[in-house]
Design brief:
mainly alpha, single chain, DNA polymerase, domain 1
């Protein structure tokens, strides 16, 4: 089996268990590896071949190198579990050390400056920014939010019932989200 055939079989098997964006990323990275060793059969690939490929990309940032190694590890681990290769060459790769990235949230002053630019009548945009700032939800979660997922309560503000990136429901309390609550109420009035 060639690298190209391995990639297609791997992606076909994973298409229902990982996101479209992850599939696209896997296809790109694995295709880069296949171009690096175009005529090699997967049974002949050793840890040395993987190291040569990764070393050829040594000028990339550690996070990118670690992602490439992880994708190779997932693919060759899958090939091993499927019985397509006798040993997993990626199992012998040393992990690439990367620094933990600490999120840098916007300051209150920065949020105020952005809100000052957004016109008052653009409720959606104002609500999006305040939800992100006050609740910490992801952009995709905020953009996919529907009014039936919003549960407002006068006692404690209420909560949002979102579907996170793992496709699980998650309750986000609105206790300290006074601006978001006011904007949600305003949006709700426009829908009535």
């Amino acid at each position: 089996m060639s690298c190209s055939e391995l990639i297609e079989a791997f992606l076909a098997d994973k298409q229902h268990s990982i996101s479209m964006h992850t599939l696209r990323s896997y296809r790109y990275e694995l295709s880069m590896f296949a171009r690096f060793s175009p005529d090699m059969l997967i049974r002949d690939i050793t840890v040395s071949h993987l190291r040569l490929y990764l070393d050829s990309k040594a000028d990339l940032k550690p996070y990118t190198q670690a992602r490439r190694m992880a994708i190779l590890h997932v693919c060759f681990g899958w090939a091993y579990s499927q019985g397509l290769i006798r040993t997993d060459p990626s199992a012998k790769l040393k992990a690439i050390r990367i620094d933990v990235r600490v999120p840098r949230p916007l300051t209150e002053k920065q949020v105020e400056a952005i809100l000052a630019i957004i016109p008052q009548q653009e409720l959606r945009n104002r609500l999006l920014l305040t939800l992100l700032y006050e609740t910490g939800i992801r952009i995709g979660e905020a953009l996919s939010l529907h009014m039936q997922q919003v549960h407002l309560d006068h006692a404690d503000g209420g909560y949002l019932l979102i579907v996170n990136k793992m496709h699980r429901e998650q309750v986000i309390p609105l206790i300290d989200a006074s601006r978001s609550i006011a904007l949600l109420q305003e949006v709700h009035k426009t829908l009535d």
